[in-house]
Design a protein that fits this description.
The complex is a heterodimer of chains A (about 300) and B (about 425). Chain A is built from 14 helices and one strand; from the N terminus they run ααβαααααααααααα. With about 300 residues, chain A is mainly α. Chain A starts with 10 loop residues before the first helix and ends with a helix. Chain B has two domains: about 230 residues, P-loop containing nucleotide triphosphate hydrolases (Rossmann fold, 3-Layer(aba) Sandwich), CATH 3.40.50; about 150 residues, Coagulation Factor XIII, Chain A, domain 1, CATH 2.70.50. Helices cover about 25% and strands about 35% of the residues of chain B. In chain B, strand 8 and strand 9 form a beta hairpin. Chain B is globular. Classes of the chains: A mainly alpha (about 300), B alpha+beta (about 425). The interface between A and B is large, with 52 and 65 residues.
């Protein structure tokens, strides 16, 4: 019969030997994932986020790369936005309203407020809208959803890093030297990013369910800038009490102190402490809410 | 060996209710649900009344490592929902699934592709989204590009690609995934014929490489050629599960009345013809066997119930038999001979095939009726299935092996 038993490789024949040789031990060592309905509150799974760090990197990189493709000015756009905002402040508040009289180098002063604010505002806006913008990813692939808003904060951070060079240039121009407080700058930047991430994460989860929050986001960020007097008002424009009160807005305390650390001023520690507490609360609440509702994202987006 | 996937009573409920302000729904619902939970201390929401439907209901099965499982069913049967739950994109409403090993889901070709990025950049982007590490992509990059056959365009933004190139690159990335479990939705229906063949080839080598594959397709041909096991979903429930050919024949054929062995074709979906007659029922039997189980090399009798809209003169009727993969094996028709007849009222037509020549296996049959003048009046593809069983095909005790092919023939031998 061997003549007739042909060597035809049919799929069903071919599958058999490979199944038979499957190493039994390895299959049992594989990680087990249990899929079942969850409920209630969950903290952030940092281990899982860490496993997906490369995806975070690639999504951040994609946001940055895509933004400046097919543009003539390219990365220059990263500092044109804060520079334009700075010029408006310098012309209208500095010259017309006479604020520049009470502050040395008002242009540099405003820029050191506008640059971190631009970072903050861009990070909040883009991460707030990020889930809806990446709807296809969410409905097609599993990964920790937090990666999406976080990558937007990362991409905004790239622009921020470029704008910081601009601040450095202007400091050289004016001959302003930072002091020891410069050491606090990295921590302040991290806190600012954490605040932006917290607000963005919270809003992104809200926007998935309710598109209303999109309008609140756009409009709210504009209002928020004016509610952050550290950007444009001289340091002593507010009295000590109202200064502390203003620091309930985390952007206020953080931007005020970031400028102080960059330009060699002294830190306002009470305001910093209050802003930091608010910032971390916002981040914690944002993450908790996000984790509680993320299981519905693919259903309702 | 522990199963690669174990699914227990998996159910998924969706809301379809339309309230006056759908935009306000989730917020108010979240609040009322929260309040209700506070008072009741349970997360039980309002019952199964209107406004909800079960996309998946009490689905249970097990898949062994290395198994290639096809999922079939009509649109809305719950196939995609099942895949989405297994890929952890959506959460089940109740039930549980255990997945052993890294799972990669391929529910769409080119997830995360960005038109502004170049082919190279998108390979990294897409690979990373599908769960590959950068080092893994580095290692496989040349292979991926070669598979996609787009070497010279790899640094061009994909927005300038033809749709074929785009899809080839996207599939190439997916074909190089290294997960133990692969969940694949209807993605092979892309590209030209040659590339589709290549994709199916890639799918086959994936399934030979000891990996568990979950595979949704509407192409029964592909299902039959790739999968050994098959799950048929119907309205969110498992209707049948088992050998792919058997399940496919269940899926394609008309509703079988188990008691009489008749296939009810009144609402069968695969219908062609200009009308003027309707094939209502079909039935097949052979000597000594009931229902649609036949013995090779005995007389097979097909019975077809036809309802003419008006009297049909010189009806031409045919029965064709195909294997589960859609390959036609034989056709018999009354007009091949001189058996044309008139059908004046609802009539049962029988067709007898002496010495039925198909080898043991499962087959599908189609029936049609027409006239020379009007052409095809009614034709039902995959009207029913029949199973040929026999222990002793040749009558000599010589066992039958499927590789001999589906057709049996008598032969006499002489040695001069």
């Amino acid at each position: 019969m061997s003549v007739v038993e042909p060597q035809v490789t049919r799929p069903e024949d071919a599958v058999l030997p490979s199944t038979a040789t499957a190493p039994e031990s390895s299959a049992d060592d594989l990680p087990l994932t249990v899929i079942e309905p969850r409920s209630g509150w969950h903290v952030v799974d940092l281990g899982e986020l860490w496993r997906f760090r490369e995806l975070l990197y690639f999504l951040t990189w994609r946001d940055v790369a895509v933004r400046y493709k097919q543009t003539v000015l390219g990365v220059a756009w990263a500092f044109l936005q804060p520079v334009a905002t700075m010029l408006v402040f310098v012309v209208f508040l500095g010259r017309a309203a006479g604020l520049s009289a009470s502050v040395e180098h008002y242009a540099l002063y405003v820029l050191t407020g506008v640059v971190p604010w631009t970072f903050f505002a861009n990070a909040v806006t883009s991460s707030g809208n990020s889930l809806v913008a990446n709807e296809r990813l969410i409905t097609r692939v599993y990964f920790p959803r937090l990666i999406i808003p976080l990558s937007c904060v990362g991409a905004a951070g790239f622009d921020f890093a470029i704008s910081v060079l601009l601040i450095a240039l202007l400091m050289v121009w004016y001959g302003v030297l930072p002091g020891l407080t410069l050491l606090a700058a990295p921590l302040l930047i991290v806190l600012l990013a954490a605040t932006a991430a917290g607000v963005g994460i919270f809003l992104s989860a809200l926007i998935v369910a309710q598109r209303d929050f999109r309008y609140i986001l756009n409009f709210g960020v504009q209002l928020w800038m004016f509610a952050t007097p550290a950007i444009y008002l001289p340091p002593d424009a507010l009295g000590p009490n109202s200064r502390l009160l203003a620091a309930l807005n985390p952007a206020q305390g953080l931007i005020f102190n970031l400028r102080a650390s960059l330009l060699g001023g002294s830190l306002d520690l009470p305001a910093l402490a209050l802003s930091t507490a608010v910032a971390l609360t916002v981040l914690a609440v944002g993450c908790l809410y996000f984790r509680a509702v993320e299981r519905y994202f693919a259903d309702i987006i | 060996m522990k199963p690669a996937i174990r699914v227990e009573n998996l159910s998924k409920r969706y809301r379809i209710g339309t309230r006056t302000h759908p935009a306000n729904r989730n917020l108010t619902e979240a609040i009322t649900d929260g309040v209700r939970r506070l008072f009741r201390g349970s997360k039980q929401s309002n019952g199964e009344g209107d406004g909800t439907f079960w996309a998946l209901k009490d689905v249970s099965f097990e898949v062994q490592p290395g198994e290639v499982v096809g999922i079939i069913g009509r649109n809305g049967a719950g196939k995609s929902t099942l895949l989405k739950i297994l890929s952890r994109i959506v959460e089940p409403t109740s039930g549980r699934a255990e997945v052993r090993g890294r799972i990669a889901s391929l529910l769409e070709v080119g997830t995360g592709f960005h038109p502004e990025l170049t082919g190279r950049e998108n390979v990294y982007m897409n690979g990373s989204i599908l769960g590959m590490s950068k080092r893994e992509i580095d290692r496989k990059f040349d292979e991926i590009v070669a598979f996609a056959e787009i070497e010279q365009f790899i640094d061009t933004p994909v927005k300038r690609y033809s749709s074929g190139m785009y899809v080839r690159l996207a599939f190439a990335v997916a074909a190089h995934l290294d997960a133990e479990i692969l969940v694949v939705d209807e993605v092979l229906a892309v590209g030209d014929t040659a590339f589709r063949e290549k994709c199916i080839g890639a799918m086959r080598s994936i399934s030979n490489a000891d990996r568990t594959v979950f595979f949704v397709s509407h192409s029964m041909e592909v299902i039959i050629s790739l999968c050994k096991t098959c799950v048929l979903l119907e309205q969110g429930r498992v209707r049948s599960i088992g050998d792919a050919k058997v399940v496919v024949s269940h899926y394609l054929s008309g509703a079988l009345d188990e008691a009489t062995g008749r296939f009810d074709l009144r609402t069968h979906p695969y219908r062609r013809g200009v009308g003027g007659a309707k094939i209502l029922e079909a039935h097949v039997s052979s000597e000594g066997n009931s229902g649609n189980v036949l013995c090779s090399r005995t007389n097979a009798t097909f019975t077809i119930l036809v309802e003419p809209a008006r009297p049909i003169r010189s009806a031409r009727m045919a029965i064709a038999i195909e294997d589960a993969g859609g390959r036609r094996l034989l056709t018999v028709a009354n007009y091949f001979h001189t058996y044309t007849f008139d059908i004046l009222r609802t009539t049962e037509v029988t067709c007898n095939i002496p010495n039925f020549c198909l080898a043991p296996g499962r087959y599908l049959f189609s029936v049609s009726i027409g006239t020379k003048h009007d052409g095809l009046l009614d034709s039902v593809d995959c009207a029913g299935w029949l199973e040929v069983t026999t222990s002793d095909v040749f009558g000599t005790g010589e066992p039958y092996n499927p590789v001999y092919g589906p057709v049996l023939a008598d032969s006499t031998w002489h040695c001069v």
